[in-house]
Amino acid sequence: MPELRKCPISDRWVVISTERGRRPTDFGGAAVAQAQDDKAKCPLCEGAEDKTPPEIIAWRRSDTLPNKPGWQVRVIPNKFPALVIEGEVNRSGIGIFDMMSGIGAHEVIVETPHHNVSLADMEETHVEKVLWAYKQRITDLEKDKRFRYILVFKNYGSAAGASLTHPHSQLIATPITPRYVKLELTNARTYFHEKERCLFCDMIRQELGSGERLIYENEYFVVFAPFASRFPFETWIFPRRHQSDFQEIADEERIQLARCFKDILIRLKKTLNDPPYNYVVHTSPNSVPRPGKPDYWGTIHYDFHWHIEIIPRLTKQAGFEWGSGLYINPTSPEEAAKYLREIA
Fold first, then answer.
1. What is the pLDDT of residues 276-287, one digit of tens each?
2. 139-193 per-position pLDDT tens digit
3. What's the CA gap between 30 and 311, in Å, rounded?
4. Could you state, in order of their start, the residue ranges of all structural domains in the chain?
5. Catalytic residue among 106, 126, 166, 168
6. Least enclosed by CB within 10 Å: which of 13, 83, 161, 179?
7. Has 168 been annotated as catalytic?
8. CATH number, domain 3-78+107-342, options 3.20.20.370, 3.40.980.10, 3.30.428.10, 3.30.470.20
9. Residue whose C-alpha is closest to residue 158's, from 19, 337, 273, 35
């Protein structure tokens, strides 16, 4: 029988439609088509550095110069940014409608100089360099008091919103805290005030104890399918150690996260025939005090727990989802976890 399940982090209800349960092979093979013919004109490939804005940071050989070949991971401003970095926020309103200037930062993390190597196929040491770039950019952008939130995300495959084939992820800093993140923060704070425990830490303990939705674990990280999964094979990665900020991650933890990340992406690739996917890094917002809200995030370092959400794009939202805000998931998280655990 179908079930309605509620996520304690977002207060969101989800329909787990077991009546139309689907196996990995039922999704019809969603392999990401890798365009081979655009490599010569790809602006992100090594040797095409003059086609992009100047790099912000890069992991490169010591004998090479900025904006020249010899890099392994490279961060550049987005050539067509959603938000611009120059200017002030300038909050205003027209009647009941609030407005502000489109201030922010929009950057591209070019994950490798090679055109057709996915993150799942990279060496662990290289994945670690990509994670290093995430940490460096979040740490630097948080110094700008105009920015309230910094979101790192990846669109893999055209069905997931990727406009370029070359392996890359993105970062957008905004002058607001996004609504979904704010819901997580608010519910986490309420839970902590009531129980003096971290909601996420309790969830991790419960998933480890149950094992039904557990997919992978190592010394520092735990991976499971969330109880109220919105999408088939949705997967969350959590650090075992309580940390509110992604940039708190230590070097050894980053090595283990790279191992964990690669493992999960390979499992998804093998199980679902290299599906398009999105992932997002949910870290805490910039904790710079705000006028009129001195204690707004007063307990955030105790009640929030950063994590990564991976969402394979196997189903589409239709009228019911858009009209109700409810998601219908045809594969239970328990079944999805079982399939992913069984992949060698």
1. 999 999 999 987
2. 999 999 899 999 999 999 998 988 899 999 999 999 988 899 989 999 999 999 9
3. 13
4. 3-78+107-342
5. 168
6. 179
7. yes
8. 3.30.428.10
9. 35
